[in-house]
Amino acid sequence: MAHLPNAPVKYVLGVMRFPLIPDVDSFAGIVQSALGKEFRHRRNEKLAQLNLRIEEKGVELVQEEVSLWQFLSEDGHWGVLVNRGMIGLHTNAYVDHKNFLDRFISVIERVVAAAGESIQQVEALALRYLDLVKPGADDTLEDYFQPGVLPASVDFGGLSMLGGIQIVNLKSELGPLKLQVIRKPDTVFPVDLHSPLVIGNDWSLKTPEDVDFATIDTDHAMIFSPPAELETFDYRTKLFSLREPIGGIFTRITTEHAHEVWKKA
User: Fold this and answer.
1) How many CB atoms within 10 Å of residue 191?
2) I need a labelling partner for 140 at 20 to 30 A (CA). Which of 48, 92, 106, 232 fits?
């Protein structure tokens, strides 16, 4: 199930993890050559103390002593991420899930072909989606979400809602899935995603002022133990299967009114 037309997707990240490669700098050079002109622009090319993890609790950017390389597209809206055991693609210019997954699969196939025997197994795949939901001038935030989804205000003693977070940890047939609905966060991006990487790309979003708003943050992962053999691995089927529950959850927790608003946007 795809996101609706004009739905408020602000950021998407796809990651493939594999057994560690000894020399990340040499590997990054191989990756850059494989990507060619499409991702020739390097900004913050070697980001220290930042790593991407795929675990049972989800896919996260964490502060660690790890070199993370990034190669940006010419327009600055798409970036390929590389470290010793991971290749990723992220963007702030999402069109639809097919466009994103086709691009991600193309990056994976080019890198794997160029890496030769250095990459022969896959340890994990993951996708993470970030949506920003703001009500229209004549609406409330509750008009956009099904009952019970938003962190609730407490109607007692003149208390007012400053913010809140609702976290649901799930497990699909494929692997762990986490849903966060964050009401009035200090930053649109969750803390781990609002990293030097996103800030350096100028992808940060201005926090809406004087309006009730929410961030929907969903990630879904497949973890292979033991690692899957690359020669029989079907990226396309697995990535599109990972994406389906993310889209299904998004449409299920939002309302028909929200869908109509986004269709007209």
Assistant:
1) 12
2) 92
- What are φ and ψ of residue 159, in 5° steps? -70, 145
DSSP state of 54: E
Rounded to two decimals, the pTM is 0.91
Retrieve residue 58's tokens: 């989800």
pLDDT digits (tens, 9 = 90+) for 211-241: 889 999 999 999 999 999 998 899 999 999 9
Q: Residue 44 is encoded by which pair of tokens? A: 């913050």
**Backbone phi, psi, residue 179, to 5°:** -120, 125
Helix axes 235-253, 97-115, angle to 10 degrees: 150
The alpha-carbon radius of gyration of the chain (Å, integer) is 19
Give Cβ neighbours of residue 215 (< 8 Å, ≥ 6 apart): 130, 131, 132, 133, 180, 181, 182, 185, 188, 189, 190
